[in-house]
Amino acid sequence: MPLLTCRQLTLLRSGRRLLDRLDLTLEAGSVTALLGPNGAGKSSLLKCISGELTCDGEITLFGRPREAWPANQLAHRLGVLPQSSSLSFPFLCEEVVAMGRLPHSEPGHQRDRITAAAMAHAGVSHLAGQHYPSLSGGERQRVQFARVLAQLWQHPDTPPAPRLLLLDEPTSALDLKHQHQLLTMARALAGRETAVLVVLHDLNLAARHADRLVMLAQGNLMADGPPREVLTPPLIERLYGYPARVLHDGDTPLVV
Q: Which residues form the ABC transporter domain (predicted)?
């Protein structure tokens, strides 16, 4: 059963069609990169799936219509990392990560253990006692990623439930090392009954870490498939206006 099914999604804003009868299906175990030029509708699609925007069409999550899910139940299985956070209160980083456990009912010691484990996985344990507003943009993004990990964290003694992770330009503020670390962790999570949908601008980063690329332009689906099939010079030049060359290292294309 698909974890996500979108049918005929259409989104209009100020007379502009941001999504145009878009269909998309995601299966567990997959990392899908959402690509396209600015204004293609990538972030709008994620906001429709998360419920931040209302659109026409049908969205089914884990076999049920999105509107049939109680918010607290859905928060156990759907995690969203937005492009940026406007959080300005002087919370400690460990408190920000612990916010991911708010939908869960559990003893405080268990919440603290999961919070610490999520921070360790995201490589931000050393920031636990620092005030969140004092961090750099990249550090904030990594702390927010730890918050989403904590939100989706499942107890090892319970049957695993399928999950969906939406990442909206998660690498935009990160250096090269942390870009690859974050996407490597997303890949590991996908191997645990999870589908990952990530908005990226770097075609080579997407080709290296995603097993499926979905290319949008003006709210329309332009290409959908493995990186080797999607990243072709004609399509890249058509969408980006860039006369690219594509080299191949095994199954991984390299855009130059």
A: 4-243
